[in-house]
Structures are given as structure tokens and as C-alpha cells.
Amino acid sequence: MRLSSKRWQHCSAAATYWWKTCPGIGKTTLARSLAYSLDCDFRRIQFTPDLMPSDITGIHYYNQRSGDFEFRPGPVISQIVLADEINRATPRTQSALLEAMGEQQVTVDQETVPLPVPFLVLATQNPIELEGTFPLPEAQIDRFLLRLRLGYPSEDDEEAMLERFETADPLSSLKPVATAEDVVRIQQMVRRVYMDPVLRNYLMQLTRATRVHPDVELGASPRATLGLYRCAQALAGIRGQEYVTPDDIKSLATPALAHRIILKRHGAPPRTQPGVGDRRVAGGAAGADLEESVPGWGSTVRGALRN
């Protein structure tokens, strides 16, 4: 699946995304360009070991002029948030994002503050560096809808990048092509993309297969099932389809499920190949060919749409 499809999927499925890739690929540029194009608020949080939870969520401070305590919102109270190098913060600070990622709200000193709509978290992690980093807790990893590996651009794309940056920064000339209200409307439209019960059962069996795999300690959660469901609807909408196809589900199984899977010790791959085992399990679960195992699924979907 092309990067452009994944990028527009951010708009279609309201959630959080985990970019696990090397530095210099353009993650910050992509996040900023997305915010500018959608005319949304954008904040970047540089995660470091000395970052405190209140630096993310905000604080109540005493205003001497008014004589009252007032709330100063943190950077997470924005529409698009880039959590840069999230694994460099301590687990206590990382946990400050749990409520925001799961419930689209933050609680500070017993005051609950709803987050703006749409709300999108883009977290980055350098998979090469291990010194000075902290592992992400499973509860937080499970809240990431997708884990994406951007990879290096092709030779033609890299040459085009040099041409665009030759005389000026292309970001400075970006104009909004949509609004936050448009994004919310698209998200509502995506929820109406049809998925046949046969495909819904197929999707459910994919996630359930990760829970009984002999090499898996912890399989994909029900949250993963719902996340894959929403992503498949979003991808079908991006492709101009009125209904979800098996290819929509299979192309998203690995980025939606692999990071949620914990392997048993005997099933773990060598340390020189991070993520190989969980991707193999997720990819294997998605390998079933529905077109062959369920003849006539296409006519079933089209018939349901007509009704």
C-alpha cells in the first residue's frame, strides 16, 4: 500500500499512529504538511527522559492578578500531535498519553478536559537506538491503531525532493485543501462503508488466530479487531469503493496487528531482526484466500448493497 493511502487514512480513521523508522525520513515534515493541509492545530512534543506528565497534559497555576487557579493546557490538547521519539520518555510520562489516546480526553487535578476534534497522535520511534530509551508498555502499544514503517524514498522521489527544496521550503507555500469539519464529515462517511457479514467474520478470525498461535504469548485484543475494522472501511473509502473487499483487510492486517502481538521466548526472532516474528504471525493470519474459501462472496456483497 502506498504511503499516500496511509496518509489519507489518518484523516479517515480517527486514532493514533506509530511511525517506527530511522531519522531523516520526513516524519515531522509529513505531520506538519498534514496539519497545514487540513487547517488543524499542530503541536510537537520532543520526548526526553526529564519530560514530566504535566508537560504534556497541562497544569493548574495560580494567577496572582485574578486570585484564582487557572488551567494552562499542555501540547496534547491539539488536533494533530507529533510525539517525537516517544520511547525516550520514562514510563510514567508515557502513561500521560494513555487517557488521551484511549478516550480523547485528559484529566488534570480531577478536572476532565475534552480534546479537540479531530484528534490525531503521530508517535515516532527510532528502532536502531536502544541506549537511553524505555520500552513502551503494552497498554499504550495496544492504543496505536497502526504501526507504519515509512522506509527510504525511491530514487525518483528523492530526486523530486531535491528539486522541490532547491530554492525554498515547500511547506511555506502549502494552503489548506480541507478543514477540520471536513475531516469529521469524512470520518462519519467512512463508518457507513459496508462490510459483508462474511468478511466481518473473516476479519474477526484473523485477530482470533493470533491468540491461539503456538509462538504467541499475547495476541491481538478486541480493540485491535475494531481498529482493523475501521481501517478497512477507511481504505475502501479511499479507493472509491462502497464496500470492503478481502484485499482491504489483508493489506492492513500486518500494520494493524503485528505491534500488538507478544511472542513467547522460544518464538522470538534474533535481536538483529526486530519485529520479524510479530509481522510473520500477523501476515500468516491474513494469508487465507477468502475468494477461494468463500465462493460468491462478491455477489453476496453487491446483492446486500442493492437491498
TrEMBL record:
Pfam families this protein is in?
Answer: AAA_3, AAA_lid_2
Enzyme class comes to ligase
On the tree of life, the source organism's domain of life is Eukaryota
Q: Which GO terms describe its molecular function?
A: ATP binding; ATP hydrolysis activity; magnesium chelatase activity
- The ATPase AAA-3 domain covers which part of the protein? 21-146
For this protein, the Enzyme Commission number is 6.6.1.1
The protein's name is magnesium chelatase
Which species is this UniProt entry from?
Answer: Geodia barretti
